[in-house]
Amino acid sequence: MTVADLLTEDERRLLLELVPSVDPRRVTAGWLPAWARRGGGIGALAVAWPGVVWLSPKAHGLPRRSFVALLAHELTHLRQMQSGFVGFLSAYAVTYLVGRAKGRSHLEAYSEIPAERLAREVQAKALGPR
Ligand SMILES: [Zn+2]
Predict the structure, then answer these.
(1) The three-state (H, E, C) secondary structure of the chain, written as one string
(2) Mean pLDDT of successive 10-residue segments in the chain (130 residues)?
(3) What are residue 28's DSSP bridge partners?
(4) pTM score over 0.85
(5) What's the CATH code of the domain at 102?
(6) What is the domain extent for residue 103?
(7) Rounded to whole angstroms, how far apart are CA atoms 98 and 94?
(8) Residue 45 has what pLDDT?
(9) What's the CA gap between 74 and 19, in Å, rounded?
(10) 83 C-alpha to center of ligand 1: Å?
(11) Distance 50 CA to ligand 1 centre (A)
(12) Ligand 1 centre distance from Cα of residue 73 (Å)
């Protein structure tokens, strides 16, 4: 199953517009393992890994627009990983740890990671005007 299989044609086009370098037809969609769904914090609705978006069953319970916007968020992370997964991961971890060292909570440190800020911007664009 690919991410495109979860989308209508219009939704796929929207995501390609927002994240041009990541074709949802080339991204595998999988189920997030239970341990990751429990795991603190990122224990989220979805996780991106090179070539894959892992979705929690809860993601499918989202309103349609929020679901598509969540995929926009994850595809943005895949785009960020295109310039090097190790670089992405270390920048991600370092900015998180620096935030924690400054006394930020888990959620604050996580949300201040530049890759997360950018992914949230794209996610908001996918949600569109309310
Ligand atoms: Zn994210």
Answers:
(1) CEHHHHCCHHHHHHHHHHCCCCCHHHCEEEECCHHHHHCCCCCCCEEEECCEEEECHHHHHCCHHHHHHHHHHHHHHHHHHCCCHHHHHHHHHHHHHHHHHCCCCHHHHHHCCHHHHHHHHHHHHHHCCC
(2) 97 97 96 70 78 91 94 97 95 97 95 96 89
(3) 2, 52
(4) yes
(5) 3.30.2010
(6) 3-127
(7) 6
(8) 87
(9) 10
(10) 17
(11) 13
(12) 6
CA distance 6 to 14: 13
125 CA from centroid of ligand 1 (Å)? 15
Give distance in angstroms: CA of 104 to centre of ligand 1. Answer: 18
Q: How do residues 3-30 score in pLDDT, each as one tens digit?
A: 999 999 999 999 999 999 999 999 999 9
What does the block give as tokens for 75?
Answer: 């595809």
Per the structure, how many domains does the chain have? 1
Both tokens of 60, joined, read 């499918």
CA distance 121 to 44: 18
Ligand 1: centre distance to CA 9 (Å): 24
